[in-house]
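Dear colleague,

Following up on Tuesday's group meeting, I ran the structure prediction for the two-component complex that the binding team flagged. I've pasted the input sequences exactly as they went in, so you can double-check that nothing got truncated or mislabelled along the way. The structure tokens for the whole assembly follow below. Feel free to forward this to whoever is handling the docking comparison.

Inputs:
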Amino acid sequence: MRYVLRRFAQTIFVVVLVTLLTSVALRFLPGGTDVLVALKTGPGATPEQAQQVVKDLGLDKPWYTQYFSWMSNFLSGDWGTTFQSNQPITTAVKRALPISAYLMVYGQLLALSTAIPVAVWSAYRQNSRFDRVSTTSAFAMLSLPNYIVAPVLMYFLSVQRKWIPFPSIYTSLFDDPVAHFKAFVLPSVTIAIPLFAGYMRLLRADMIGTLQSEFITTARAKGVSTANILFRHALRPSMFSLVTSAAVNVGALMGGVVIVEQFFILNGMGRLTVESIFRREYPTVQYAVVVLALIYVGVNLIADMAYAWIDPRVRARRALS
Amino acid sequence: MSDIEVMLDENAPIIPIIDGAAPPKVRVRKRGRVTKWLAISWLVFITVSAIGAESLPYINHSCDQFDSDAECVTGTKANIRYSERPPAWAGFSDSPQKTEPARYGLMGTDKNGFDLFARSMLGARTSLIIAGLAITFGLAIGTFLGMIAGYFRGWVDVVIENLTNVLLSFPALLLAIFFVTFFNDPTTSAATTRPLWPVIVSLVILSIPPLTRLVRANTIAYAQRDFVVAARSLGAKGSRILFKEILPNIVPTLMSFALTGLALLIVAEGALAFLGLSVEAPTPTWGAMISFGTSALREGSWWISLMPAFMLFLTVLSINLLGDVLAQRFNTREAIS
């Protein structure tokens, strides 16, 4: 319990620090107010007009006042509107968040569901032909950034064979499942390829270690079937690094797949944040960053809890400390 | 921090994922000698070509379409005569203009009629300079911070550790984009050429936190060793212990970090260039070339973006392979844990 509380305090600390840093850093973006004024009033604004814009947006106050007023607004649930179109920010975030979430979930599911069996079999039959092929291809996949994978997939599946329409048009899963999956299949595969490689290598290495421990020998001596040994005895204690890495990636995927979003023209969180940085939409950037940071720390917290579920020894150690 | 976290920290250093490339992991089987030499020769080839891009004979083979060689290299004026020609070996491609598919050169030409092989070599120069400088500075600063944090511990460690955590909690690409925007003055950069340094500085900042973490873990492992304790009991100062006792021991590990980091930064630079945030147009970089070719890709001219993509892939793969070989040679994993 004390452990949970301490983790919680740490989480809050990180979120506050992240928002504070973003807030301060955004104010120091060069040409910030100039860009805003130009977008707001069009070219050739008089200095008075410019000052009025700055004043309207509350950007003339010192940064700490701005931060605190932002923080209190945030906590009271008033998320404010975007500078330029006066739309509520919540609408923008609400539109972008599901797209990112779908991308993240599909990418992770695809990567994990392929990486786990491949890694388990590779570790079990170490140095077999299967193992050699899968480790080598995983190694090669690590050198494939997604701005290479995306054009290749797009060319072969949407241009050469017209299987999948190219600019992915987002449709909700519940409105039209077929169109939904057509829109998400290429971006998800693009995301999943490097993830697969990372997960596969991590799990394979850990699994090889676990398979040498004595309880595996015992299980085998008792006559437990191979599948049972691999998936029920050995997999669980080998999953530490995998869980850590998967958790870190959840955060990274929610906001960090700007390129995939850009290439397939999906308006997710990454694109929202980047466009808002370019247009100096400070509040939108800030809320996007808060959402991303909350997801990041939240998932890490869950991963931490998951360690205890994976391995009872962790639970015991935590109870002692 | 609970003990399980500490254990994970030191066993499995977490590097943020910069879109595709990932940190080195355990390699059990030794990689073949042939692949190693192939990787080295590819890197030598690409470096030499990048340095001598103006003068090497195999690069200028499309220059007869220009008035002078200098124009060919800088690419100020384009000749449409050679626009979008597929590479000479591409037998299976339809010409986008319904004329006879005249093939051209090793990699074909792009929309402006530039030879893609020559452009790729010039792109290699930009990418390698940016990534190389960035990893050099990043490694220097990261090593310094990591060693201080790992050796002195206490409040220095807490400060550095928390700063790294905060920086790592942002998606890496977003951070890079932010810093590039931060260092680029919008009033000057819009139209003309953008300088190299904002990209380099952004990548340096991006590479510091993970490197600091790794070096810190390594330093902690050595700080308890007998020879360090002996040096301390002989009255050696902290700086002497750090630079004379610990640093030489972590240099091999640093070398393999440097290679992996170089690969990651080439990828990151490509990502920025793909989004149009690296150096500006007349200077080609791999990422920008890939991005430039995607509109033609939709009409079937695959070589314009896939050829530079292939060059980038081979380069990153070779660097990763060498990093792997080094990590095995010096048994990096053992040193960390």
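Chain B touches chain A through 62 residues (CB under 8 Å).

Cheers,
M.
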